[in-house]
Amino acid sequence: MYDEIDQQRILYKIAKSYYEDGLTQKQIGKRLGLSRIKVSRMLKQAREQKIVQISLSAPEDGRSDLEHAIEKKYGIDEVITTTPPSYNREGVIRALGPLAAEALVRSIKGDEVIGLTWGSSLLSVVDSLPAEHWPAIRVVQMLGGMSQPDAEINGVDLTRRMAQAFEARPIILSAPGVVNSPEVRNALINAPAVSKALSMAAAAQIAVVGLGVFSPDSAVLQNEIFTPQEVDRLVAKGAIGDICLQYFNQNGERIEDPIHNRIIGLELHQVKRISRVIGVAGGEEKWIAIRAALRAKLINVLVTDDRTAEMLLRN
Question: Is Nucleus among this UniProt entry's keywords (predicted)?
């Protein structure tokens, strides 16, 4: 049996070998005649006895502590923030794209199904993707196509471009995102190709989504995807944002409205079941919608700007 001094000496030796010399637990065990499990237990003991005291040096920009505080407040996996060169809409979107692209790429093992929605924020992400060789990956559209918006922010084009960047297989949702009636929607979602794409999107392991709001420069309003009367009705019911044109209230709960019976895409409960949902959104006009999505755990990774992050922490 070790006396107390000998015990501390061996704990120190193991800790130094592991933390300073970079040896593995298996290598340490071989040197000292201990099992790997015994080494692991003794490392834990060294930490408990303050033989090992770990200190962290945060980057000087201070964003790491802000990100950690939001992660704790909302109970989500990761928050990534940036200070954009300009806080106007275009400046924020351009700044978020590369960060979201990096968050996506480091999440990929090489055989996943990746879902994505549509919009300017997603365009910035796709523009920032590196070229990779992941032929086993499938990139699937989570919301049907939009005829009105510019093609470059349409889910069809974004899906194809992401698949091209990864040398992966695109799965296109061959249906409009919004149709004229529930009957048309029901007919389309039961068509084999559409049903297969929706099923694959629902089974995705990773999703990259934008968060929409009813701001004057939003694609929904600018391209008259819905009538003014429909927008007013949604707002009157408490709609403050959307994912996949599925509108939610300040608590992230889906608004009950006939519009949803005309949307071809994933519903909020399906999005919520995806393991890693990377939400890409920033700007002061979006912070309430972002807060709602965080509250309801509709996303578990947030990429945003630092001003929006401060608002999420304070409110």
Answer: no
Cβ–Cβ < 8 Å for 43, 15 = yes
Give the pLDDT of residue 1. 45
The CATH architecture one would assign to domain 4-48 is Orthogonal Bundle (1.10)
Ranges of each domain in the chain? 4-48, 63-314
- The 8-class DSSP code of residue 263 comes to B
Q: Sheet with 301-305: list strands edge to edge.
A: 78-82, 301-305, 276-280, 206-210, 113-116, 138-141, 169-171
Global pTM value: 0.84
Q: Which fold has domain 63-314?
A: Rossmann fold (3.40.50)
The pLDDT, as a whole number, for residue 215 is 81
CA count, 13 A, side-chain hemisphere, 13: 12
Q: Give ∠ CA 281-284-290 in degrees, rounded to 5.
A: 45
Nearest to 137 by CA among 93, 97, 170, 180: 170
Strand partners, 145: 176
